[in-house]
Amino acid sequence: MTTPAGLDVLVVGSANADLVTVVGRHPAPGETVLGSDLTVHPGGKGANQAVAAARLGAATALLARVGDDAHGRLLTASLREAGVHTGRLLTGGEAPTGVALITVGAAGDNTIVVSPGANARLSPDDVAAAREAFAAASVVSLQLEVPVETVSKAVAVAVAAGTRVVLNPSPPAALPPEVLAACDPLVVNEHEARLLAGGDAGAAPAGWAAALRRLGPRSVVVTLGAAGALVSCAGGTACVAAPPVTAVDSTGAGDAFTGALAWRLARGDALPDAVRVAVRVGALAVTRAGAQPSFPTAAELA
User: What pTM did the predictor assign?
Assistant: First the structure.
């Protein structure tokens, strides 16, 4: 498998089919509610971030696993249509393509349950076989919908290649110190920040970021939904406001943010400047339904 020269972003992570229904309100435990007709969209945090970066003009590749099934073919087609290099998209084995079961509320908020499928089979050996892609990329973007040992291997390979590491620890999990030390930045939402920072971090984003910095990352970005984001790095801490929008569906908005952030960092932006672009991309993404279908192009961003 070949990797294009001058790669901006290599995303290592998950590729899922998103099965989505819309409800008037989310059910309480033990309760049944009626939803809309089921729709199927390409998704997964890894595939989402790759598509988000590619649509904005980044030369992007995805290292992921899908099953030899209809959902896998849907994902492969959507990635290629967005301009993502799919030479590192692996197919094979008996595991089906991962699936995310998504319920979207009337206000655009969502709940998600992920069945990993083939994502759980993305291995450290797969990472080792893709060293060429790590060396070619300016930024490697990672999440935690694939095994933690695979993420650890990807970080080690990226560090050895001198490639910048962006990590979104979602869903949250304990990470080795060497993984945290490589993050520049660690990108978390409010829930992830509180969980990973621990009980002594206080109730404000600046406290969460400070507690997370003490764990070892070179920088931290806390996404705050409609309030924008907070950046904490060697240059200080700053809040970045998001433009006001009417939210339709928040599915994938965090991935749109992270994909845009990786794109701008690959192009040489300072972290605060990259976050300013990323909050605009995330805000645009919530104004349309679905994950990948909602991600803006560079022309729409302009």
Answer: 0.91
